Amino acid sequence: MENQTKFSKLIIYLTCVFFTIFIGSYLVKIGMINQFFEAETMSIKPIFEGVELKGAFLTMLPVFSISVISFICFILFLLAYVVVSKINFRNEGWFFIITLLIIVTTPFELYLLLQYDINLIQKIFSNDINSIYLLEMLKQRIVALGPFPLIILFSYFIIIFLAIFKPLRKRI
After folding, report:
1. Which pLDDT band holds residue 168 (cuts at 50, 70, 90)?
2. Distance between CA atoms of residues 87 and 80, nearest Å
């Protein structure tokens, strides 16, 4: 890890920037989505029934857009870093675990992005805002993979821990 070129350092810097932006937008997105529903029954909260939520969905558009763009950039820059830096995973066990966590969670996150988030962004961006339909889409997004958003958050917090403390590093 010590013998990195300036180009690989730039790539890992951009990877970290997009990772941070993604985590922040993901936390905000989960918080915004969960505010619409009762936790136990997954029914719409009474204060949102019969109310036009066009303004709320327009407010959600930047968060969803930033989340999608930052996740895609994060994955692309991470792949570029793995290729450019030529890290020996045997000597850098912490980076191997980080890469493994990202490889395992990416297909599920891509499913949510492609199935729900991009569709929601398109509906809001085209000003085709049907509050009932969009709320049902958000509900399906929550139900689709259940607790996966929490799993991805905890996995990514573990990634932060591994990147800071670098356990399982082989000293040569």
Report:
1. confident
2. 12
